[in-house]
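Chapter review. Work through the record for Sulfhydryl oxidase before attempting the end-of-chapter questions.
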Amino acid sequence: MLRGTRLVIFVLVLLTLALTLTTFLNDAYNPFYDAQMNRLNVPELDSRPVPANLGSSNKFAENEVIMGKLGNATARAELGRATWHLVHTMAARFPEYPTEQQQQSLLQFFHLLSSLYPCGDCAEEFQRLLKQNPPQVSSREAASQWACGIHNLVNKRLKKPQFDCSTVADHWKCGCADE
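Structure tokens for Sulfhydryl oxidase:
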């Protein structure tokens, strides 16, 4: 029973992150935001090629949104904050030089999050953002900058303050034993 509860909480946190992603952004602090295209413009941060099986053709990219609308504004906001914390911490802890399998896992996570997020309208918005701004999973820095940029896109839509993505590495340290 405890394991099932933890899984539900984990999924809710992930879904909250997706909701939050769809609700924020102000391009003033996001050097990767292209205002004319209303999308992120994240350059490749290293020279390693992205494996051919990663990207928009990913089999998880077209998942349906499972959940309905989440009408409780308080629950929606709490879910969003928790999900963003999870996403940013995952990106900050992602390997600097991930294997192809690690890259595939993170990519799948984001697409599954967009399908399973407990707020259906938030999940739909996150799917739209994923389509316009595919997750960057080639390195820790790429994943962290992508997560920050997506979060800022959501913040912009929600008319919330933008986060300075140049400080993302300092902000999302998890306090883990290996740091």
